[in-house]
Specification:
With 815 residues, the protein is α+β, with helices and mostly antiparallel strands. Among the domains are: 201-322, no CATH class; 359-457, Immunoglobulins (Immunoglobulin-like, Sandwich); 584-702, Immunoglobulins (Immunoglobulin-like); 707-808, Immunoglobulin-like (Sandwich). Helix 4 runs antiparallel to helix 5.
Length: 815
Amino acid sequence: MATLAIISSMFLTSAYAQETEDSQIFISGFNAYQLKDYPTSIARMNEVLQKYPDTSLRDMALFWLSRAYFKNGNEQDAARLMVQFSKEFPDNALRETVEEELSALIARYEKGEKLAAGPSVAPAKPLTTKAAEETAEKVEQEKLATLKADQEQAAAEAMRIAAIKKKQERTAAQKAEAFRSATEREEQEKVAATRKEAERLTALRKEEERKNLEAARLSALKQEEQRKSAEKAALEAEAARQAEAARLAAARQEQEKQAAVEAEKQRQDRAREEEKTRAAKMALREKAITQFKSVIEKYPYTTYAAAAAAKLKELGITVALPAEKPVQSENAQVLRLEVTRFAAFELNLSAKSKTYEVAKKIQIPFEIINRGNGNDSFVLESGFPAEFGASFTAVGAPDKKISQTQSLAPGQAFNGLLDLTIPPGSMDGLKIAHPVKAASLSMTDATQTRVVVLVAAAPMLRAVLKTEKTAPLPGEKLLYKIAVLNVGSTTADDVSLRLNIPHQLQLVGDESKGFRQETKETVVLDGLQIKSGENREIRLTLQLKPDALAGQELLIRAELQNKTLKTSAAFVSNTSLIQPQHNIVLKAATEQRTVIPGQKVQIPLTLTNTGNIRDKFAIVTAGKGIIGSTVFQDLNRDSIRQTNEPYVSEVGPLEPGEEVLIIMEIATPATASDGTGADSSIVFTSEGDRTRSATAAIKLAYSRPVLTMTLSGKDVQLKPGEIASFDLAIINRGSNLARVVELSSSWPEQLELVGAEPANSAVASGKVLWNFIELGAGEKRTIRVSFRVRAGIGVGTNIQVKNILKYEDQLGNRY
């Protein structure tokens, strides 16, 4: 079996990757021990402990190294290492499988006795098999490829970050210069009153910010106190719950213990009652025999003696009666002798220990020979615990359980079988010793006991889980190598590997095809068969989810279930710590807005912390063709700045995934021309990583009404009494609506108004006024006015008619 195990570990199919080095060296040493090549086993186990002192196989390596030294004759090192094993792993069940001779050496070693050192062992040579060379080459190639890929990825990432940083610095410098120029120009245009008002507003804003910050600080302190109180209450409740659970468990254990004691007491009472009953029957029988013999002795030649002899014969005792009454002389005496019942027997059963597989039926032959002087039966009792299912059968009837033999004549033998099963949970190499008892049915004090010694043979599975990437970032892939070893003496059939995967990880890659998804966070690989001495490696690729939080530990728990034996063992992987990643996403409600010159524009922005760590973000704004911009946090998300919503220059700290609504308020100049544009931008930069930023660029298009007035008439010469007419055409050549449009015409007293169209004009004191509620973009209005020159006006008099056009935009700006 050991040879087959070595072959199977060398020729794994391509579905599995090469073993990790510590498990490979260990299984090589284990197989050498199975082949009784103890020097090689010693060298391999020492190599594991020296190269990998923190390996998860340390307990197994110490244990088998001690046994290998013992088998090789080095008593001193064998005892020393087993003592070290017991100190480092005091609860390890392997201690129960230590040989008795080795246990005796440990006791002598602990008393300070000098033990035999044994032969020296040379260091192990590297594995020279073709499979081992191919394995080493493959592992080295994989390491080089992984290292090269990591280096290339790191170099590309560094170049990308440098380019982004350089571009951001150049853009920031350009924006800063543009903003500085615009600010200087605007400051020069402002009057002293505007500057004073701005300073007053700034002071008020700072005071409001200070008050809001103080209120926020007090609120945070209050929330922290409430959180601590809640945590304290939760801890106290949890402690009370655990204490109550412990009390209930202790009470339940005490009840079970008392019930077991009571059951044992009742069993002993029943046994005593049965023994008393049997003893009473035997006493009555002996008393009857004595009385019948007394009758024969006292009245040997009477019918009473004959009747007593008949009764004794029924009881299995033959007594000879004299044929006739002898004639006694005065000098003759008679000596009467009687052979009494004698119970004796032999119980033959092998006392040597043998190895048996667990969970399989065992039959141990035994023999009972009646060495008494009468027919007798023998009661059989087993001292094995109930989980062994021990019972007795006859060789000729193996399916019928018995508790005693049939009646055996003197010298007759009974051949029987002790049937039992070693419990499936027994450890490989465990020594089991329990008594078997036989007792004479005729004489209960005639008993014999033999101890049955068994050694359990079972598979012993171990799993080693490792990943080389112990500091992953969100989105990265982690390759886990899972080595499954069988260091028991039998094959493990129908084994399932169950992996509990943290919720931060998800399955990817082709390696996961053999697994089935049992639950959201559990995958299972069924149908494994691991031979004795085999080391099977399985690979699994997992990817860290983008929303995995920084600072969390990743541990994979593996459970090996032997469905045949209904046993299981659990193991955990090495720890990986999620690294912090700073990132941000900025979304603007609009990237382009049409505005009226002089209008204050509010641009809603949604800022989301898409990193995996708490972070703050600095704010920088810039613009061209605008007066300036300010930023405030919209706490109630109504896009209107409230008194408790201060202007901010940074946002946060924000938890991972948290988003806030930011309003950028842009002030535009009232003098901007229709059809011109402006640019405004805002940049949020991570405080934890200055290379991580998000930018929103807003384009503004200025739109205002532009009304023009055209006079269609020409300068003419008129005589007194003649009429002159002219048309006024008003056109909105701008891109926005004009409101409250007023056109007024005034004339001197030399002229007399004859008519005006449209008729909704107001005429008074040499002046006519037309009012239009609004005039849309591109809309045109025409007005006709007629005048007559009054009589008596002298020649050469110059007469002028003045026309004035006024209007407003939608903000109320007058033009």
